[in-house]
Amino acid sequence: MKDAVRAGFERTPLIEGEEIISRLGWRYAVKGFDPDRRVSERDWKLLEQAAILAPSSYGLQPFRIIVISDRDMKERLAPACYNQPQVRDCSHLVFFAARKEFTEQHIKEFLELTMEVRGTPAEDLSGLAEALENTRANLEKNGLTKAWAQRQTYISLGFLLETAALLGVDACPMEGFVPEQVDKILGLEEYTATVMCALGYRTGSDWLAPLKKVRFPADTIVTRI
After folding, report:
1. CATH number at residue 60
2. Residue 1: what pLDDT?
3. For residue 53, is it within any domain?
4. In CA terms, which of 27, 56, 147, 177 is 20 to 30 Å from 97?
5. Beta strand 63-68 pairing with 191-200
6. Residue 115 within a domain
7. CA of 41: how far to CAs of 35, 110, 156, in Å?
8. Rounded distance, CA 139 to CA 102, Å?
């Protein structure tokens, strides 16, 4: 049955291409959210799953996704986010926080999860375990662990943004915050806030909403070989 479902996905697109482009054209980085409108629980679960299903290096997901819907917490975070109105007025505020270190324990937990989910014997994962350890050691040696983890967060953010557009949920990705202050407020120790995204629904008075999207033509930004 699972194979049949997978084959169905491969044969027939569930969403027409024109609809995807239309929804991506509809979205923009919302400046004004309606503070009284909330994303439904059903839609929010879909958005969370989309972010979780995003690809990452080896599938390790070296980050955490912190979802904030509590108004008091958003108020506490606002000064650390330069008091941008989206932080206070959105339905849900999401922080993607990257791991500061990539540890042997992280590898161990990932391999154990792989064995559980796929039923793979430990001996069959020896090659993967070696590759993961080599990657971990090289990243640590070259001081690249944090940067590597931070890059993974943007892939997850991208999946969140596109899924939000397909669901008709507005969003605004933002880097405008002080990581050290956000980390302290959220009690992050092993992770550090990298990027945030406000989600909800635009107001009728958002000045940016009626403006045309500005993008360079494909032939000036895409190289086809």
Report:
1. 3.40.109.10
2. 42
3. yes
4. 27
5. unpaired
6. no
7. 16, 29, 20
8. 8
